[in-house]
Amino acid sequence: MAKRVTVSIPDLLHEKMEQWRESFNLSKMFQEAVADAIQKKEDFQRRLREDREMGEIIDRLKKEKARSERNCFDRGRDDGFNWARSAEYDDLLYGLSWKGQDNVLRDQVLGPYFFERAVKNGLVDEQDGTPNEAYLRVYVDGWKKGLAEFWDAVKDKL
Length: 158
Hints:
The chain contains five helices and no strands. By secondary structure, it is mainly alpha-helical.
């Protein structure tokens, strides 16, 4: 059921409305204008809600990314420590002085080892062999940390 509403308008607008009254359905125009204004408000409120939700999603994803990177670092650290346990002395020295983090998989000495570990840890695309550079870098940082921890534990005993 339709409801009647009283609307106040300036005198000048009222005069013009009277001149054109026959040309316009003022009730319909008012309904459309109010419906548009309400829709804009509702859309704005929805965007605000979504933005808050999006912010929450982004915060959650940041935490998950940090946890994933920590896990990747920890796997690298464990692998570095374990590699060092069975490495020969010269290989240990090479690993400790190794700076080739940009071309990890191409290194003559460690490249094959890192490729095998990267595949095992899901850091390489299995279809085309393309490494996930960001996570591989985090893994290698962890690996170097594990190697250094091992070396610190044994170097004074040699």
